[in-house]
Amino acid sequence: MLTIKNLHASIGEKEILKGVNLEIKPGEVHAIMGPNGSGKSTLASVLAGREEYEVTSGTVEYNGKNLLEMAPEDRAAEGIFLAFQYPVEIPGVTTINFLKTAVNEIRKYNGEEPLDAARFLKLVKEKAKLVNMNDSLLKRALNEGFSGGEKKRNEIFQMAVLEPQLAILDETDSGLDIDALRIVSEGVNKLRSPERATIVVTHYQRLLDYIVPDFVHVLYNGRIAKSGSKELALELEEKGYDWIKPQLSETH
Amino acid sequence: MKETIDLKELLSSRFAAQESAINGAAASDFFQQRKAAFHWFGHLGFPTPKHEEWKYSNVRNLISESYAFNAGHEVTPELLETLQIPNLEGNILYFVNGTYQPRLSTLVSPPGQVLILPLQEAAQSHPDLFKAYYNTLAKNEKEAFTALNTAFSSEGLFIHIPDNTVVEQPVILRFISDARKQNSGAQTRVVVAAGRNAQFKMAEAFRTLGEERSFTNIVTEIHVGEEAYVEYYKVQNETDNAYHIGTTQVRMRDRSHFYAATVSLNGGFIRNNLNIEIDGQFCDAHMYGLYAPNGRQHIDNHTLADHRQPNSFSNELYKGVLRDQSVGVFNGKVFVRPDAQKTNAYQSCKNVVLSPGAKMNTKPQLEIYADDVKCSHGTTTGQLDEEALFYLRSRGIPKSEAMGLLMFAFCEDVISQIRIDPIRHYLEGVIAEKLNLTQ
């Protein structure tokens, strides 16, 4: 589904990704862990098409297409979803109207008829239930005045509505208490299927108790320094990231 | 190519001709006031950019051609039908080229609720009432365009709402400039007096037909009596050849409320002055504004909240979206006079400049002479919020639609303040159309 080869990306003069390689197949859940500043969020942003980042070399192939050439909206329409670490507050645009526009633009891109109001509302109600999203939030301006937990829940709610093939969760656990974490994780788990893949970017092992990954990768200084099974996350929890360093220098 | 003329000269000879034509009426108080105003106009002359208040708005082009003022027209009811604001109900009064058109207008409010009379008729039938309000707020001695309006506006309306009266239906003034065959000029005077504890909603909406120039010079005087509540909306959706100079002069008495929203969506050259004298205690004055010029449009809003007495509140929010080579001007003055202790005055002006060629000039001006007051002001001029744009795009919304959504939301802050629903819906439609940013 997704093949990342030797991906280098910079912001301004600063190179952040220094040769990332990653292969993701349908049905898989990959966790990307690593210390602050290792490039985790950059990787998520580059995949979603954030324009501040310049890809200096490498390739990203998504379902046989060159992902890096696609506009962010086209990536979304092709089934990529980024759950933001810091969801943006947009005054004056209600969540429900925003989502209706998004759903129908994606349908248009894929040559489908727009959903009428009744079918859209049915979809929204069903998905809101999935993540315990309060109806009243849907009528409010997008994320405006939402608590941290409400914002994250809104991200997962949007994900549930848009049903992406590849979901990228960028530190979705940050700022969540344990109840919110459980609800958000349940939402993610309910969406797991053999056709869909998920990338979970996280700093802590905690989230992976709820969203159990098939693979864990440690991003360190712009490269994947170590990959392993879910046990690797536990090892990181126990030992921290420092023990990765010597291994990395050995490979130099 | 039209020949360049001296508009001031031309107006002088027109005024002389007018004076000799009216004979007996020349001695009337109404005419004497107009004559005095004409002298002021002669003395002041048209402003130039050297004049501080006209620094960013040059009227050179406006006064380079002549206009047929208050000329006859061929505007039929069928044509007006096409210009209607859908579902709008109330007293709808049409002016064509500045002249009131009773036959095209609809009055629905009972005369006991609101007195609506052409200016000249009011001067004759209600001389005392007329004298108490007409031309008492206009600053003829300072403002050339106001003086010019006073001098020439035998046309206009006098609106009086008696004490303790709620006018249930709004009064909508529709100003149509017919510039299909020639340059059209319109000078209209509107005088509104809301009595004590009266409630009243009004709107002024401007349209120009045709490709020739139009020049509207309008002055609206609004007296807001004690405890009265007045809403005032000004809506401009004109052509690129439309020139508009408008002054709305308001005076508020004790415990009164005044809401204004000025929405300028299209027009070649627009200058709106909104001056509120808060000459009462425990008043609240609200000013909202939205302007969305594109092409080479020029939209200038000058506002004044003049706090003359203690314990009143004023709040102001103006927003602009500028594109192409357009120019916006915002000059917001807040005066807090020495007696006006415990004043709360807030002002904010936010702009989004979408093209490198567009320009926004903002000048907040606070002059505070009392020491126990709360005042704040802020202006921002920036580009579109890139993070918000990316967020919307990352959900599959194409860039142009995402920009449109964000801009619409930006405008909605002001539009939502319009409490006459059909007008608000109409404006939302015009904005949505205008902000269709698909390139």
Key features of this structure:
A: 252 residues, alpha/beta, 6-stranded mixed sheet, B: 439 residues, 9 helices
Structure, explained:
The complex is a heterodimer of chains A (252) and B (439). Chain A is α/β, with parallel strands linked by helices. Chain A has ten helices and twelve strands. Chain A has helices at 40-48, 72-77, 95-109, 117-130, 135-139, 148-162, 178-190, 206-210, 230-239, 244-251, and strands spanning 2-11, 14-24, 29-33, 53-62, 65-66, 80-83, 90-94, 141-142, 166-170, 197-201, 215-220, 223-228. Chain A is globular, with a radius of gyration of 18 Å. Chain B is α/β, with parallel strands linked by helices and 439 residues long. Chain B contains nine helices and 20 strands. Chain B has helices at residues 7-22, 29-44, 77-82, 119-125, 127-133, 144-152, 386-393, 399-415, 421-434; strands at residues 68-69, 91-96, 99-100, 115-118, 156-161, 171-178, 184-194, 199-209, 214-224, 229-237, 242-252, 257-266, 269-278, 284-291, 298-307, 313-322, 327-336, 344-353, 359-368, 374-382. The chains are: A alpha/beta (252), B alpha/beta (439). The interface between A and B is medium-sized, with 30 and 23 residues.
